[in-house]
Specification:
Layout (H helix, E strand, L loop, with lengths): L1 H5 L2 H27 L1 E3 L2 E3 L2 H9 L2 H35 L3 H17 L2 H29 L4 H12 L10 H9 L2 H14 L6 H5 L7 H34 L5 H13 L1 H32 L6 H15 L4 H25 L1 H14 L1
Antiparallel strand pairs: 1-2
Helix pairs in contact: 2-3, 2-7, 2-9, 2-11, 3-4, 4-5, 4-12, 4-13, 4-14, 4-15, 5-13, 5-14, 6-11, 6-13, 9-11, 11-12, 12-13, 13-14
Length: 363
């Protein structure tokens, strides 16, 4: 979607944003681990907790929890369901509403099984799919390695394709950059891929076995690298190779499936389509956990049954909604959460610096 909307240059801005995203994600995980607590025998923590404990502001933490609930329906659900239903329609001809219903049913079964079933599902599925995806992508790229220098040049040239005169027109160049589609879509889609700054990942990290905030924070850096620098780049290269060799006017998941299909055969396209479905279900299940934690923090644990019902219905809705509506809601969700959370992380940066310094002095 970033390439279709913003051109090849969007890939460059995904790379740039990932550098800043690594720093923010590291910081928010360190803070979450530092301020985590125990409640009823279970570990609790995340952005809302370090906002309340570190900034002494219940209002901001409540606002963030409400935003997280909203985001669980958009970024965490409808975007995933849309991508999966698109994939199944493309590779197997399955009607989109049918895929939406299947996703809702599978998600409900796993979600009702609790945190252990959620973690077991994602830990068993995601590594296998990721390994297969990386191997397939590298095979396509290596077999078309002669095209890579031109593709890299195209990415860089497209990223800075701004017509501006010298001297007094420099201001226009800056304004044009801020309106630049590669910049906008590269950064926004990059953030959706790695969730850095949104404050969601810390909720999952606090349930880890690690007792050291800094060591756990390193995994946040690795997450951004794996999501955006590695996987998104591999996807982008395959798509740009396919567009360079065969052309095409598709968008989103269909473009990815088409690219792998024309370059590595129909079986590769089917593998990508099925992978998208399973990734989507894993993401929906993971985000339901964020939603549950937000409800707990807001003192609305009794509403979880209604949340599950609405959450599963959102999965069905995502399969039939207009793509522009889905992406607008996702962009709104991620922007609102990122603004609130990143400002709070900046405010608490001295704590991150102190903890990091203490860790390296000890070792």
């Amino acid at each position: 979607t970033a390439i279709t909307a913003g051109g090849a240059g969007a890939v460059f801005w995904m790379w740039v944003s990932s550098v800043a995203a690594m720093l923010v994600k590291y910081a928010e995980i360190v803070l979450a681990m530092h301020y985590k607590t125990r409640k009823d025998g279970a570990v609790k923590g995340g952005a809302a907790f370090y906002m309340e404990a570190g900034l002494k502001s219940r209002r901001i933490s409540v606002l963030f929890s409400v935003l997280c609930l909203f985001a669980s329906f958009s970024i965490g659900n409808t975007v995933q369901s849309y991508a999966a239903s698109d994939a199944m329609k493309c590779v197997l001809g399955i009607p989109k509403p049918v895929t939406g219903i299947v996703i809702a049913a599978v998600s409900a079964v796993v979600i009702l099984g609790g945190l252990k079933r959620i973690s077991d599902f994602t830990m068993s599925v995601v590594p296998i799919l990721s390994a297969g995806y990386i191997i397939l992508s590298l095979a396509v790229i290596i077999s078309n390695i002669d095209m890579m220098p031109e593709i890299i040049r195209g990415i860089v040239n497209s990223a800075f394709n701004i017509k501006s005169a010298a001297g007094g027109a420099a201001g226009y160049g800056i304004a044009a950059l801020m309106r630049s589609k590669p910049l906008r879509y590269g950064i926004s889609r990059g953030l959706i891929s790695n969730e850095a700054g949104c404050g969601t990942a810390p909720t999952a990290h606090v349930s880890s076995d690690s007792e050291n905030p800094v060591e756990q924070g390193f995994w946040g850096i690795f997450e951004v690298f794996a999501d955006t620098v590695l996987l998104c780049s591999l996807t982008a290269f395959v798509i740009l190779i396919a567009l360079g060799k065969c052309g095409g006017s598709l968008d989103g998941t269909e473009l990815a499936i088409y690219s792998f299909g024309v370059l590595a055969g129909d079986a590769a396209g089917i593998f990508i389509g099925v992978s998208v479905l399973i990734y989507a279900i894993a993401s929906i299940i993971c985000w339901s956990y964020y939603g549950f934690e937000s409800l707990d923090y807001l003192g609305l644990s009794g509403a979880k049954r209604w949340y599950i019902i609405l959450y599963c219905l959102a999965g069905i809705a995502g399969s039939v909604l207009v793509p522009s509506v889905i992406w607008d809601l996702a962009d709104l969700s991620i922007a609102a959460m990122a603004i609130v959370n990143t400002l709070c992380v900046l405010k608490l940066s001295k704590t991150v610096i102190r903890l990091t310094g203490d860790y390296f002095r000890r070792i």
